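Appendix B. Raw example, untouched.
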Amino acid sequence: MDERIPSGDRHDRADRYDRWRNIVADALDAREAHATLEHATADLAPELRGRRPAGLPHSPWELLEHVRLAQADLLAYLADPGYQAPAWPDGYWPPTPQPSGDAAWDDAVAAVVAGRERLKALLRELPDPTAAIPWGAGHSYLRTILVALDHEAYHVGQIVLVRRLLGAWPPP
């Protein structure tokens, strides 16, 4: 087949959506361009999880829990016609800089990973990921999934920075 022919003429819409779905699903795993959340949070000593480095406003726990809360909010927005946003900023940040214990930390990491898997599944289930969310003020499913992807990547970078400043990067 002549590669000079635009791909839109060679493939139907479903094939193009499948390619986009795979690209975005791979990006949700974030293994190619930067650290994953799992790597950024791995083996951080419990006594450092709630520590804020000098000059920075957030601890590793605050950043991790913020990612979890925001991702859960975006998943609710994607799925619930009766969606109501949490209050800003309190609904998106934990009340304290440290987790209540090791289980809270582990549960937050597991919840983000599970949420990411739900986003990938939703992306693959949608007949048209570019369609508007019926209750979404004109936002598309794809746009909202990309917001979740971008938000997690941004804060993973912050977790890495905080760990560097705490002398705990890279993980052992």
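End of appendix B.
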